[in-house]
Structure formats: structure tokens, C-alpha cells
Amino acid sequence: MKSSFNVLSHYVEGWRKISSLLTLNSEALHQFWLQVDDTVYRIHELLSNGSPLKIYNELLTGVLKRLLALGDFTRAEAIALALKETAGQQGNKEALIKANVILGYTHFNLSEIDEARDVFKQGLVLLEETLSDQILRIIFLSNLSMTVNSEESLEEALACGHSALKILHTIKKPDFNALAENIDKPSWDVQRSAVMSNLGTLYFEMARRLGEGKERDAHLRRASRFFTRSQSGDITFQDKLRSQANHALVLLLQGKTTAADDAFARLKSQCDGKPSLQRIASWITGFQAESALQQGNTEKALELCHTSLRQAIQIADPVLESQAICNAFGPLHSICDCIFGSNPDWEHFQEKGMPLINELLSFLEEKDWYTAKTHSQGVMRIASRLFEVISNRISLDRIGSSLRKIQIAALLHDIGKLRVPWTVLNRTTPLWERDFNLIKKHPAHGQQILEAIGLGSLSKTVARHHERPDGLGYPEGGNIGGIADRILAVADGYEAMTTYTRIYRKPLSKSDAVKEIKNLAGLQFDRFVSTALSEAVD
Q: What is the pTM of this model?
């Protein structure tokens, strides 16, 4: 057990930098993933056998922390679920509370907001009126204040945030800090700053949802107050920068563009050349893009969006990376409306649109080492040939798409993987079902991204490229769509079969891949398009 744990500890910090220097399918990288899985399997077995939790408490805490630092939520969740079950059987309230914290955190970072909220509420029920439980109550309430996905939950989140702040102010700082240190929880100042920042974010979100008016202005003033107060006390430099950036964003929404730009520039200079501040730098650059857009400078806004995405992709922590990517895509829709218009001219797309697409593919290439540009370009080549063969058999009206449009959809069909943790995308050991479920979300993520950047007419084709005629595809498990969608599905399947190389899967020859797709015609792939494949790859 200890040897696996030590290897896991050694690799977690900065492992992405190490692994990116290794060749693909490197045995060293593969051994790392084997050690991660070995550690998790052995701890899971230990818990399933009902081992006394007190003996292994330190080890469990250490492994869970390292898995969360690695962004491996699938395996952290597996341990937390087993821990919750065992703790319940043994009546160990401390372990049960810890399991709820971890489970809520994993659900939250997998964008399963309702599930996260339910688990945090379960944790609250377990707490009593002791000082240590009051500290945990503040943490649960603070976590609940982040679980917003509707107007109703926004009101509930505000109530939780204010409750956390009220409890915090009833506890003397020295008493809080003494106990927090013993139970490995944040200090009074850090916890206060987090709650204040959450409340500022919630009021800011309420303001964004309103049109101009007194209510919106009042929410922005509240947000500004909370962001300002969250900067005080003994907190980290990163937390101060984050609060200052939020405050500058309030200025931007208030129409104080010059003041906001000056604040962003000051903050950006403090982040330059500091990898630990990469997420904040990406965040600030995204805000600068919004400011440039408000001032009508589309070219500068697009350049800043590119910079923000590039900074986001370089973040080692997969959770922070995902958040930064979402932030960077924020202003792109309005920018792309200016570039492409509401109905892009696909036949003349090369000049205006391809620089952006190539930039997006380069971001994906940095994140997904196995596919990205090489795979996307291969899918485009096969899709182009299939289109040519099929257009000789049926009319273009029946295909329902132009060659250029299919080519661009093929290039961008995996763009949704930008929203999948890179710890899942680049795993060399067989995927768990939970890992695969995360990957199965990438067509829907791709649809959202394309709609966000003004390419909504491609989004349905991209969303359906893993659907199947037998209804067993994903993400919907429904209709495979029109001819263009079916062409993309076959092209993607063939390219994956003939080029993907992983430790546990070798590529097929061209003839074997054609035979495999014909065998799956009517099940995984469309029969009509499958019959055109052998001619397309000759």
C-alpha cells in the first residue's frame, strides 16, 4: 500500500509537465497510471472489507487529497462512496462527514450541481452544535452557496452564504483558528474571504440577469462591497488577486470601462511570468476581451480570447483549467457574430473562419495528446471522400450540406473535449465506466461551444457524431440525424480504428477497419454510408 501511495504522492505535483515531455504511450506514463489505479483498487478493497477507519484515516485523507489534486474525480468518488458506506456501518461520523465533503466536491467539479447540493445538505444534517461542527457547517454552507443552476437555487445560495457569514462572525477568530488547524480546515480569514467572495459572485450574477435599472445597480453595489471586504485579512496573494479581478469586472458592468481596464492591466502585470497565477491571468485576459468588445474593438477582443484560451490550456489543475476555458469562451459568441454573421458563407469561410478554427484545434492538441489535429484532419479527409462518393449516387439536396460545411464540422467534431478533464483524455489504462461517461459528454459540449462561437448550424452534426442507428449511441441515444451526420460518424469511426494507438488497443489495417464498419452497418453505422467507405478509402 505504502509504495503505491508514495508513487502517487511523487507524481501528483507537476506530473502533467513531466508526462508532456515523455513520448506518447511512454512506459513511464503508463506505469504512473497503473500506480494510481493500484492505489485506488487496494484502498477500495480495504474499505469494502470493513477495516477500522481510525487506523487508515491519515492514509485515506492523503490519497483523497492527491486524487483531487490530480483532478481524478472518478477515483476520488469511488473511494468517497466506499468510505461513506463503511463509515455508516461503523458509526464513524467524522469519516461520514469527510465522505460527504469529497462527494459534494467531486459532483460539483463534474458539473453535477443538483447531486452536489444534495450531498452537501446531507452533510449539514450530520452536524451538531460543537465548535468543530460549526466550522464544518460554515464549509458546507459555503459550498452550497456555489451550487447555482437556476433562479430558485440562486436565492437559496444567497441564503446559505449569508448564514455561513453569520455563523462565522459568532466565533472568535483565535478559537476558530486553533481548532481549524487541528482538523486541517482553512483559517478564519481565509474562510471569511471565501464566503464574502461567493456572496459577491452571487450578487454579480443576479445583476447580470437583469436589464439596466435600480435593482441591477443595487446588486452591483452589494457585489462591489463583498469583493472589497473579501480582500482583507490574512489570505493568499492569489485570493486577493481574484477578489480584485472580480471587483474590476463589477466596474466593467457598471460602464466604468477606463477604470476597469486600468485595474485589469495592473492585475495582469502581477501575474506575468508566474505559472501559479496562470488561471487568474487567463481569467483577467477574458475580462479584457469583454471590455474590448464593449468598446467595439472586435479584432482586439478576439486576440485576447485566444490568449485567454491558451493560458487556460496550460493550467495543470484540470478543475481550474475547465473553469478558465468556460470563462475564455464567454465573449466569443458576440465576436464571432461580427466575423461570420448569423449565416456563415461556407464556401468563402477560409479567409475569415479558418484562423479561429486552427487556433481552437491547436488548443485541443495541447490538451488531448492522442487525437486533436492529426485525428481531426484524418476525419476531414475521409468525410470529404465519402461526400464525393455519395454525391455521385444521390443529389446534394438529399445530403443536406455542402462539402465545405462537412469538412469544417469534421475538423471541429471533437472540440467538446476541451471540456473533458485531461486526466481522463490521456489515461493509458482502461477507462472506468465513470471516465467513459465523462468522455460521452464531449459531443454535447461541442454543440455548446459551437453555438457559443456563432457556428450553431454545425452544432447538430457535431452533437450527433456518436449517435447510432440502433439507438445505443451517445449523448442522447436517439436519432442519428441526416446524411451529413452519418458521414461524420463513419469517418470518425474509421479514422479511430486505423490510427488510435494506446497501451490497451492497437490500430486496425484499412481493410480490417472497412470490414468492421460493414459488420456494424445498421447497428453503429448507417448502412448507406458504410457501403461507400471501401470506395472512399481506395
A: 0.77
